[in-house]
Design brief:
Blueprint lengths: L15 H7 L7 H11 L10 E4 L9 H8 L1 E4 L3 H12 L1 H18 L7 H12 E7 L2 H11 L3 H7 L8 E5 L2 H6 L8 E9 L1 H4 L3 H19 L7 E4 L12 H4 L12
Parallel strand pairs: 1-2, 3-5
Antiparallel strand pairs: 3-4, 5-6
Helix pairs in contact: 3-5, 4-5, 5-6, 5-11, 7-8
InterPro entries: DUF3025
Protein name: DUF3025 domain-containing protein
Pfam families: DUF3025 (PF11227)
Length: about 260
């Protein structure tokens, strides 16, 4: 199963350090996840130690998010989806904890029901398919973000391609997004949340930058909540340097780089 993952791909830069810390000898990752969780001191929003447990530990009729919130136990299946979920817990623990707190609070307030409701929908989209775009504060960075939000793909991703890496960095978060990218397709699109940051943050080493992003996004979620309107779509293989052949024709493919819908 894990052989499907090409760790040389730039979109796995985010979780590669967590994977390397596991030092897996085979494909049995549950015990390694728990060793890592212990070493990192991971806890849920109630302060309970985080543990990864087999899927069978989830009681019938109890919501997944509710169970994590009540017990600190993360039901985990033997598949790529849950493997990446565990790596994200070890990479962005504060964001994961806050998302679970939001979801558990919504369940406590409204029950599980047939519909998740807007707040749980937004939290689920974030958890499954989000990317975090860290952008250097300033006019140039804001112009690029404005172009992305306007779906001016050529202007954002081709004309300003030199800004990627220097003035902004994309960190993947969604574990379903990472799973899909094990078999990359041009149409795979992330729900992107933008975070502007001062120069000093963009100059940090990757691990320190990740920790800054984890703390600040978690704090923002705790303070303002979450709505689907906060996301900006971004076809992941359009990130400059993430795929070959990124010439103007690449970004002119309107089946992937779609124009923005009129209100």
């Amino acid at each position: 199963m894990l052989a499907q993952i090409d760790w040389s791909r730039p979109w796995y830069d985010t979780v590669r350090p967590a994977y390397q810390r596991l030092v897996l000898a085979g494909e049995d990752f549950l015990e390694a996840f728990n060793r890592s969780a212990d070493a990192l001191g991971l806890r849920n929003h109630r302060g309970l130690p985080l543990r990864f447990v087999p899927q069978e530990a989830l009681p019938e009729g109890l919501a997944y998010e509710e169970f994590i919130g009540a017990t600190g136990q993360v039901p985990t299946r033997d598949n790529l989806h849950d493997f990446f979920n565990g790596l994200v817990w070890q990479t962005f623990p504060l964001i994961k904890r806050q998302l679970n707190a939001l979801q558990a609070a919504q369940i406590a307030q409204a029950g599980v029901g047939k519909s998740r409701g807007p707040a749980r929908d937004a939290a689920t989209i974030f958890d499954e398919n989000a990317a975090l775009l860290l952008v250097r504060e300033g006019a140039a960075g804001r112009a690029l973000v404005d172009a992305l939000r306007a779906h001016a793909w050529h202007a954002a991703l081709y004309e300003r391609r030199a800004m990627f890496g220097a003035d902004l960095r994309l960190w993947l978060f969604g574990h379903a997004l990472m799973e899909k990218l094990a078999a990359p397709r041009k149409a795979i699109t992330a729900h992107t949340r933008v975070m502007f940051a001062p120069d000093a943050v963009l100059e940090l080493a990757p691990d320190a930058q990740r920790a800054w992003l984890d703390a600040h996004v978690a704090q923002a979620l705790a303070g303002e909540g979450l709505a689907t309107s906060a996301f900006t779509p971004l076809p992941v293989l359009g990130v400059p340097g993430w795929w070959p052949g990124q010439d103007p024709d690449f970004y002119a493919d309107t089946t992937v780089f779609r124009p923005r819908r009129r209100p």
